[in-house]
């Protein structure tokens, strides 16, 4: 048996390590995307690679990171002083801009060295090469999206592998920024190693490992309790992506959630085959979405660790848009398709728990990438941002306005920071009025973000819910669809949800993000 007070102590100790890693990463980072928006995640793992604790960072990162650690273990002989770097989505990554660092934690003064666990960080880098700035193009294959990094040693025995470092810097548009962000990740991981060893020094390796096991078992018990509370049955739901950015054809995602006592099967059979464009997900991202939804339904302050998935079996047929085969393009799967997977899971579980599940939120991250030459600062630049929108209304309350929803948990780039770092002028940043769906509880409103370009550049938009609105529940109305608008020489043009285009000095790009769905019939 585990002492319940010590269990709570260790839960918070491990989580605080991940949180402190995140603070170190944020403070040392160069790019606004990491420093201002906090587009990164940190976590702690046991010696077998099971995630024990995570900081309250990005849901789409964290559920996938155990697969990154497993890939590092399987493909690299990890020794003391090593740091493994990877981004290959088909070997533990999510999409190419997310660079993951895995650092082992070895106990001091043991012969041979005894591995105790791992710490890991994953950060979205604003460019990793590829056919367009921001490395999230309208691609047909992964090789167009950027530099693919299998698990390899960026640091070996405490020394940076300079050949690997030079190769990375030669394949990105903003090498100084990338070098700064990579150094920040290395520093964050070093901080995590130090703090975990301090815990081991205080409590002893045996007791720390015992409570790592205890926290995994506790999360599993609480997930099983959730499943027991839900009525047994099969719950089906389907929704569509607007398109894949190339063909214009909607892409269906279907799920059947089967609950039997304290176990569940989440089966995505019936989902469309993998797409030509970049909206494909890898299995790790689909697993992240499943972990997020069930963890959110539990509602209690339990650790979101690998134990949450122990009673849940995920069936994601290979070759579909939720488990694509290489060399599929996957940049949008991590950011857009993950959101639709959440939508269909919530739609299914609303049938089992109508008093717990909200209507659909905006269902997109509204990805915007802009890059080119900055004549003011005389350097290349790559800008990446996701833009919030409306949260779906729930049984007990309206949806929140202008917020990052579900699989993302970033901040915005403040106007002052954006104009300081890039050749942009922000013309408008406001809540989009009347964009939430009507109902007994109204869906949250979206955002209007309007940017004037001060130089010629290349832009890519990777957005969703421009054709198909976020659904309402229990008689609530859908949220308003999003819009992307280009204003040039006094003329406005509505842009597709997914597009890449040249922009010129004086152009104004306006992103109007979707509102959340309403819940319940009538108005309060």
Describe the structure in your own words.
With 524 residues, this protein is α+β, with helices and mostly antiparallel strands. It folds into 2 domains: 4-218, no CATH class; 358-524, no CATH class. Helix content is 29%, strand content 25%. The protein has 10 helices and 20 strands. The strands form 4 sheets. A 7-stranded antiparallel beta sheet has the order 2-1-5-4-3-6-7, sandwiched between helices. The radius of gyration is 22 Å and the shape is globular. The termini are far apart. 59% of the residues are buried.
Number of helices: 10
Number of domains: 2
- Class by SSE composition: alpha+beta
Task: Give the mean pLDDT.
Answer: 96
Oligomer: single chain
What value does the Rg take, in angstroms? 22 Å
Q: Give the amount of beta strand, in percent.
A: 25-35%
What low-confidence regions span 5 or more consecutive residues with pLDDT below 50?
Answer: none
Order of helices and strands: HHEEHHEEEEEHHHEEEHEHEEHEEEEEEE
Secondary-structure map with pairings?
Layout: H1 4-28, H2 32-35, E1 40-46, E2 51-54, H3 59-62, H4 65-75, E3 83-86, E4 98-107, E5 114-124, E6 152-156, E7 159-160, H5 162-169, H6 175-203, H7 205-229, E8 233-241, E9 251-260, E10 263-267, H8 283-298, E11 312-315, H9 331-352, E12 367-374, E13 379-385, H10 415-421, E14 424-432, E15 446-453, E16 457-462, E17 483-488, E18 491-495, E19 498-503, E20 508-512
Parallel strand pairs: 10-11
Antiparallel strand pairs: 1-2, 1-5, 3-4, 3-6, 4-5, 6-7, 8-9, 9-10, 12-13, 12-16, 14-15, 15-20, 16-19, 17-18, 17-20
């Amino acid at each position: 048996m585990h002492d319940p007070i010590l269990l709570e102590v260790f839960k918070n100790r491990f989580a605080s390590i991940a949180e402190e890693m995140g603070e170190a990463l944020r403070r040392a980072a160069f790019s606004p995307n990491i420093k201002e928006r906090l587009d990164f995640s940190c976590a702690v793992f046991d010696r077998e690679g099971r995630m024990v604790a995570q900081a309250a960072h990005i849901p789409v990162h964290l559920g996938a990171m155990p697969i990154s650690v497993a890939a590092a273990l399987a493909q690299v002989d990890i020794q003391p002083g090593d740091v493994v770097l990877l981004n290959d989505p088909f070997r533990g990554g999510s999409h190419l801009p997310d660079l993951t660092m895995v650092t082992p934690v070895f106990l001091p003064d043991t012969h041979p060295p005894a591995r105790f666990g791992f710490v890991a960080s994953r950060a979205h880098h604003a460019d990793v090469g590829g056919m367009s700035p921001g490395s999230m193009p309208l691609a047909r294959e992964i090789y167009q999206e950027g530099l693919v990094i299998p698990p390899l040693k960026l640091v070996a025995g405490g020394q940076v592998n300079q050949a690997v470092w030079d190769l990375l810097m030669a394949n990105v548009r903003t090498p100084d920024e990338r070098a700064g962000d990579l150094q920040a990740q290395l520093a964050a991981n070093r901080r995590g190693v130090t703090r975990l060893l301090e815990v081991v020094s205080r409590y002893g390796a045996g007791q720390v490992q015992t409570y790592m096991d205890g926290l995994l078992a506790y999360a599993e018990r609480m997930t099983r309790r959730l499943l027991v509370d839900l009525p047994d049955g099969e719950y089906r739901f389907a929704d569509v992506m607007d398109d894949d950015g190339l063909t214009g054809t909607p892409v269906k995602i279907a799920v059947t959630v089967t609950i039997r006592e304290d176990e569940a099967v989440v089966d995505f059979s019936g989902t469309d085959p993998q797409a030509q464009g970049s909206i494909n997900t890898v299995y790790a991202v689909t697993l992240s979405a499943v972990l997020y939804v069930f963890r959110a339904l539990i509602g209690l302050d339990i650790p979101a660790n690998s134990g949450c998935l122990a009673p849940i079996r995920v069936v994601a047929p290979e070759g579909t848009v939720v488990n694509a085969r290489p060399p599929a393009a996957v940049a949008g799967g991590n950011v857009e398709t993950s959101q639709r997977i959440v939508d269909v899971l919530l739609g299914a579980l609303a049938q089992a728990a109508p008093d717990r599940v909200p209507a659909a939120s905006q269902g997109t991250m509204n990805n915007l990438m802009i890059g080119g030459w900055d004549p003011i600062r005389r350097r290349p630049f790559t800008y990446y941002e996701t833009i919030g929108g409306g949260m779906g209304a729930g049984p007990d309350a309206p949806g929140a306005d202008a917020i990052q929803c579900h699989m993302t948990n970033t901040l915005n780039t403040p106007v002052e920071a954006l104009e300081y770092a890039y050749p942009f002028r922000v013309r408008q940043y406001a809540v989009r009025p009347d964009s939430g769906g009507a109902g007994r509880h109204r869906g949250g409103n979206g955002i209007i973000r309007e940017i004037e370009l001060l130089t010629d550049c290349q832009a890519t938009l990777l957005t969703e819910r421009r054709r198909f609105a976020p659904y309402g529940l229990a008689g609530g109305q859908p949220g308003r669809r999003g819009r992307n608008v280009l204003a040039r020489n006094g003329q406005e043009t509505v842009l597709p949800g997914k597009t890449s285009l040249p922009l010129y000095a004086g152009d104004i790009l306006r992103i109007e993000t979707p509102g959340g769905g309403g819940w319940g019939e009538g108005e309060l």
